[in-house]
Structures are given as structure tokens and as C-alpha cells.
Design brief:
about 325 residues, mainly alpha, hpI Integrase, Chain A, 3-stranded antiparallel beta sheet, 14 helices, about 50% helix, about 10% strand, elongated
Length: about 325
């Protein structure tokens, strides 16, 4: 075969007009290497939280040990033989999108475990078993803050005089400003003073993993103290569920709850409406308090008590246990 014949045959495979000199040379697109493809994927999700980036990178590295990430069929076959399928597929979806790989993600339905909202009494039992540092953190969790949001708090975010906290969100949620109750304000004042925190951009609390491990530790301590097995079932995230559900029960305003929870999608908030319907009559036991001044009355309302009636020039309020 004459010199250059092989190249002409290669071009002729795409077009019968082999002899045409106006045809462009064939373009061969090579799949990206893992290193390049991994970099593209991580770069594409740089706007997500550090925890999400870490999780996705971990799953992509795990996949790359056993399969070629540029072969979507082999990736699917591998993932279907393992647990946490959706987590792998979410990570791989980012990889495909970042590297121009056409892939139809399998439509898997998550098995949703029912959310059991703990009572405030049990939550407070765990918190009472914690140190002042973690008592402050867990009281913030009771106000609907995610662990990642707590770990981001700096002194600049807090206005103790106005009792306000600006929450810098996670999970692509919306930023929000929360009204702090007096108990949390007092805890924060003591915490800042005890730890000598005065840098306005200094982070106040530990990382997410440390906070979660602390909750597990104090949950066990509370169980040993109160001999209540239900305490062992309370997850740290259940404090956020408790807050969203009780706020809806108090206000019946789904858009108000959406703002407090920092949700972008109203569908996420509607989940708390669904839970609340099953909890409105979950207990017939109440804590009853009397307010003899407007200050006491206001403080009790802010703490979740609801007005019942007047009695001897005082106001009677109650809150479900």
C-alpha cells in the first residue's frame, strides 16, 4: 500500500467519497483519564458544601478502584451490587455531567424511614447530660440549625442585643435570620466569655464530625442516667425535625416554617406538615405555667407555650410535653 493509504482508508470509512480532498481529517475523541475526569467533576461541584464535595469524591474514588468510570454500563452493574446505590449514582451523575458522558441515571426509589419526632422533655434530658459547650450547641440544634450551619457560625453572625443569629446555610439552602430565645442568648454569652472569643471572624464551634460524635456520647450518658431506651434513638438531626414540626403546629404557616428551616423547595417543608398531622394529638400531657407580667407572658410564648385563659389577673399557658 502506498504511503498515506491507511489514513485515506480511515477517512473513507466515514464517507464513500474517499478521493475527495476537501474532507476534514477524522477526529477521535479520547475519554478522559480518571485524574482529569475526577478534577472536572470536583470543579463542577465547587459551589456545594465541603461535606458534599468530600462525600462525592470518596464515592468516585471507590468506583474507580473497580470499574472504568467512562463505561456507564459497568458502573451501573457494579453499583447495583452494593448498598448506598443512590449515593454512588449521585456522585457518578456529577462525573458524567462534568465530562460530557451521556448517561440515563436509573430511577431508584429511596426507602424512607419514618421520622419519629422526640419529645422536648427527652431532648432536654440529653442536653442536660452535656457540658456547657455542647449544651449551647445542642440548643442551637433545637432551633433547626443543621450541624454544618452550626460549625460555620462566627462572632459576626450573632447580635446578642437584638437576639438575632444570621445563619449561613448549607445544602444550597437559603440564608435566614433567626430570633434567639433568652436561654440561648445567656448560653452564648457565657460560652463567649468562658472561651475568650473576641475575633469577629473566628469560628465559635467545632467541626461537624466532632459535634455528631459528641451527641452520640451524651445520648449514651443520658440513657445511663435516666434509664430510658428512647433516648438512644434520638439522632442529632431529629432536633431539627422537632423544631420544624413544632413550629408548624404552633403557627400553621408553612411558608413561615420554610423560611425558618432555610428550605429552597417548599416540598421539603411540606414533609413537616405531614409529620405534624400525626403529632397534633400525640400527647395529652402538658406543662402548665402562669404568667403574672407581660414580660413573663412574652417569654413563655417565645418558648412555645400557648395561651389558654386568664385566671386571677394572670395568664395560663400550656405546652405539650
Amino acid at each position: 500500500m502506498e504511503r498515506g493509504g491507511a489514513a485515506r482508508l480511515a477517512r473513507g470509512a466515514h464517507n464513500p467519497k474517499v478521493g475527495s480532498s476537501n474532507l476534514p481529517p477524522a477526529t477521535i475523541i479520547l475519554p478522559p483519564s480518571f485524574e482529569q475526569g475526577f478534577f472536572n467533576a470536583i470543579w463542577s461541584i465547587r459551589h456545594l458544601s465541603k461535606n458534599s464535595q468530600k462525600t462525592y469524591s470518596k464515592h468516585l474514588k471507590r468506583l474507580a478502584k473497580d470499574v472504568d468510570l467512562n463505561d456507564s454500563l459497568k458502573v451501573e452493574q457494579f453499583v447495583f451490587g452494593h448498598d448506598c446505590k443512590n449515593n454512588y449514582f449521585m456522585a457518578y451523575q456529577h462525573y458524567c455531567k462534568a465530562n460530557g458522558i451521556v448517561w440515563d441515571r436509573p430511577n431508584l426509589k429511596n426507602e424512607r424511614f419514618p421520622v419519629k419526632v422526640p419529645t422536648e422533655e427527652r431532648i432536654n434530658k440529653v442536653i442536660s447530660s452535656a457540658t456547657p459547650r455542647y449544651s449551647t450547641i445542642f440548643h442551637l440544634s433545637k432551633m433547626g440549625l443543621r450541624p454544618d450551619e452550626i460549625s460555620k457560625i462566627i462572632l459576626r453572625d450573632i447580635d446578642l442585643d437584638r437576639r438575632e443569629l444570621v445563619v449561613r446555610t448549607s445544602k444550597l439552602g437559603l440564608e435566614r435570620t433567626l430570633r434567639l430565645n433568652r436561654e440561648v442568648v445567656d448560653l452564648l454569652k457565657d460560652y463567649l466569655c468562658h472561651n475568650g472569643i473576641n475575633g469577629i471572624d473566628e469560628r465559635l464551634f467545632p467541626k461537624v464530625k466532632t459535634i455528631r460524635n459528641a451527641w452520640s456520647k451524651y445520648r449514651v450518658r443520658a440513657f445511663k442516667k435516666f434509664k430510658d431506651t428512647e433516648l438512644l434513638k434520638i439522632r442529632l438531626y431529629d432536633l431539627r425535625h422537632w423544631y420544624g414540626t413544632t413550629e408548624y403546629i404552633k403557627t400553621r404557616d408553612i411558608f413561615h416554617v420554610k423560611y425558618l428551616m432555610g428550605h429552597r423547595n417548599i416540598q421539603s417543608t411540606l414533609h413537616y406538615m405531614h409529620i405534624a398531622k400525626g403529632l397534633i394529638n400525640y400527647s395529652e400531657d402538658y406543662t402548665v405555667k402562669i404568667a403574672s407580667s407581660i414580660e413573663e407572658f412574652t417569654e413563655l410564648l417565645e418558648s412555645g407555650f400557648e395561651y389558654v385563659s386568664d385566671y386571677n389577673q394572670a395568664k395560663v399557658l400550656r405546652k405539650r410535653k
